Amino acid sequence: MTLFRHGYVTGPVIGVLWVFVAAVTVSVAMSFATGAAFRPSAFYALIVGAPLGVACLGVRRKRIVVAAGCIGFALGMVMGIGPVLSTDTGIGLRLVTGVALGLAVCWPLLHFLENLSRSAVTRHVFEEAVIRFLTGFGYVFFTAIVAIPFYVMVMTSLKNQSQLIQNPLDFSLDWSLGWGVLRSYTELFRDFNFGTYMLNSLVISVLTVFITLLFSIPGAYAVARLRFKGQAVFSRSILLIYMVPIIVLALPIYIAFSMTGLRNTVVGILMIYPVTTIPVALYMLQGYFRGLPAEIEEAGLMDGLSRLQVIWKITLPLSLPAMASVSLYVFMIAWNEFLLAFMLLDDPSKFTLTRGIASLNSSEIPRQHLMAGSVVATVPIMVLFLGLERFMTKGLTAGSVKG
Amino acid sequence: MTDMTPPTGTTPLARREARLAWGLLAPTLISVALVVVLPLLAIFWISFKPIGLSDLRPAAAVVRENLRGSGDDLRIEYRIRNSSQDTEVTDVSLRDTIPDGLVLGELPPQCTLTGRALACDIGTLEPGYNERLLLPASTADEDAAERSAEDSAPEISGRSDSILTNGTFTLENFARVFDGAEFWSVLWVTLFYTVFGTIGALLVGLFAALLLDKSFRGQGILRGLYLFPYVAPVIAVAFSWLILFDPFSGSANALLIQMGVTEEAINFFGQKPLALIMVTVFEIWRYFPLSFLFILARMQSIDSDMYEAADMDGASPFQQFWYLSLPQLLGILSVLFLLRFIWTFNKFDDIFLLTGGNAGTRTLTVNVYEQAFAVSNIGAGAAVAVVIFLCLLSFSVVFFKYVSREEGL
Fold it and tell me: What is the DSSP string of A236-268?
C-alpha cells in the first residue's frame, strides 16, 4: 500500500484511469451528438495518461497546462492518434472533439492531483486524491446513466424509424422540416386519441388525490392524536399493507370486476387507486401531525371547539406543506400506475396515458410514436416534480416510500 | 369528604375519544378491508378451484323473440339457448308482455297467459341446448303488431352453478405450480433478482449519496436529475431501455460495435443469462434514487463535529467513512434493505414490460400473470399468488422483529 502513496505512482495511475474515462465519455457523447464513429483507445490512454499524470502533479499555472492539453489533443485527433480515434470524420469535427477531450482530461486531472507532490505523500493526501478521482468518475457515470435513456427517448420520438435503422446513433434532427419534427406528436394527438388519454389520466389522478386525502386525513389524525386501544398496533401495521404485491390483489379484483361489470369503468379504477395510496398518505400525515404542537389544539378545545372543528380550523391549515407533498406523491403514483390500468381497461375511450402507451407497443406502429407517447407521459410529471422538488423530496423521505 | 383517588378503568371521556378515533378511521378500514383483505381471502379460495379465464362469465339462458309468418300462419317465436357449452342452467323461466291487438291461439303446455302477461316455465336447459317456443297468434294490423312485439323485450331468468361458488375443490393448481423443475427455476430467478437488485440499488444509492453530500453550485439540479429514473412512469423508461438495447437498431449495440467491444449485436433482453442480468440492472437503475434519497437525508443529519475531531486525530478520509459514517448509516441501510427486498420481491411491471418473463426472467409475480392470463388458468395463478403471500408473511415477521425496533416505525 505504501508503494502507491508516492506521487510518481499515484499520479500516473490516476492519469491513465482518468484519460480512459474521459475518452469513453467524449466518444459516447460525440457519437450520440453527431452519429459519426468515435472510439476510445485503451492503448493511447495508457501512453498519454501516464506522462500526463506526472506532468499534472502539483501544477500552479493550471491554465497553461489546460491550453497545452487542448492543443495537443486537438492535433492528435487531426493526425488520427490519441485516446479518441475517429477515421471518417471531417477535420472541423475532429478539432472540436480534440479540444473537448483536452478540457475533459486536463481540468479534472489537475484538480485531482492538486495536493500531490513528486515524492512520497501522506495517507491523507493520497486518499483525498483517490476520492476526488472517484467523485469525478461518479458525476460522469451517474449523469450518463440517467441522461442517456431519456435522451434516447426524446430524440427517437423526433426521428423516424427508417432513419434510425440506418444509423441508430445518428440523432441529428432535420431542421428543414420546421415544426414537422414534432410530427409524431401531432399524429399521436390526432390519430391515437392521446388528448383523451391525457385528460383521463389527469381526472383519475386528481380524483385519486382528493379521495386519498379525504380518507387519510381523519385516519391520520386519529392515529396521531387520539388515545384508543390498538393505536400502537395500528400505527405499526399501516405499512404492512405495502407488503402485499399488487399483482396478488389484481387477480381477484379482475375476477370481481368482470363479474360485476366494474371492469372497464373509470369508477372501478377510482375504487382501487386510492386504496393503494391511502396507507402511505396516512403514514406520512400522521408523522407530520405528531410533530405539530398539541398545545394549540388543546387551546382550541378549551375555547369550545369540537375535535372535528379543531382538525378543520387548526390542524389542517398548519399542515398545508405536508399535504402538498402527500398530494404530489399520490398524484405521481396514480399518474404512473400501469398494471391495474392495463388489466382493467379495454375500451380506448377510457384509457389512461400508461394504458395508451401500452397499446402503442405493436409492430405495426412505428416506434417514434411509442417514444412520443412516453415523452407525453413523462414530461408533466417531471415538470411538476422539478417545480416542486423541495416538497417532493421531503414527501418521499418522510413517507418511506413504496416502489 | 369525597374520595380523591383518580378514576380507574375507562372514563366516559376516554370512551368518547376512542369512539371518535374509530369513527375517523372507519372509512380507511372499510376500504382497505374491501380492496385488500377481501381479495387476499378470495385468492386462497380461488387457488383451490379448477377455474379458467372463460369460467368468469357464468352460464345463462339467452332468448330472442321474433314475430314470424303472416295471416293464419302468424306466430310468435322464442328461441332459447344455453350460452355455456358445459354447464346446465336450471329453473329457466320466461316472462313477456303480449302487445295489445295480438290475440294468442293455443298455448304450448309450459306457458300460461294472465291478462297480457305471458309466463313460461321451461325447466332445465342442458349445456349447449337450443329450444324454440312457438305461439300461434292473430292480429288485424301485422306491421304494428310486429313492431310492438319486438319492442317489449322478453325477460328470462335461470340459475346456473358457478364454479366460483360451488363446492368443487381441487389441489391440482398447487400440483401444477410445484410441478417439476419449472418452479425451482422460477424461485431461483426471483431470488437472484431480489437479492442483487436490492444490494445493487443500495450500493449505487450509497455512492450517489456520497457524491452529493457536499454543497456546491448545481447540487440541487444534479439531485433532481438523479431522481428522474424513479419519478418517470415505469412504462416510459422500460420502453426507452428496450429501444436503447434493441438488437437490430439499438444505439447501445451500435456504440459497442463501433468501439470494438463486440463483433456482432447482442440481444440484451432475449438471451438466457444476460436478460436476467439486464432486468436486475434495470431494477438497480430505477430504484437507486430512492436509496440515495434516504441515505442522503440520514447523512446530512450526522453531526460534523465528529469528523472535525477525527480529522484532528489524523483519521484518513476512508477511515472516517468506514469508522464514522458507516456505523451511523447502518440503521437506515438495514431498513432500506428489508423494505427494498420485499418490494423487489413483489415487483411485477418492470420484468413484465422488459421481457414478459421470457428468456429466463420469469419471477414468481410474473408467473401469476403468466398462469392466470397467458395460460388462462386462473386457479393456477391464484396458487402462485398464495405461494408469494406465504413468502411475504415470513418476510413481515422478520420486518417486525428487526425493523420496527430499529427506526421506530
Answer: HHGGGGGGS-HHHHHHHHHHHHHHHT-TT-HHH
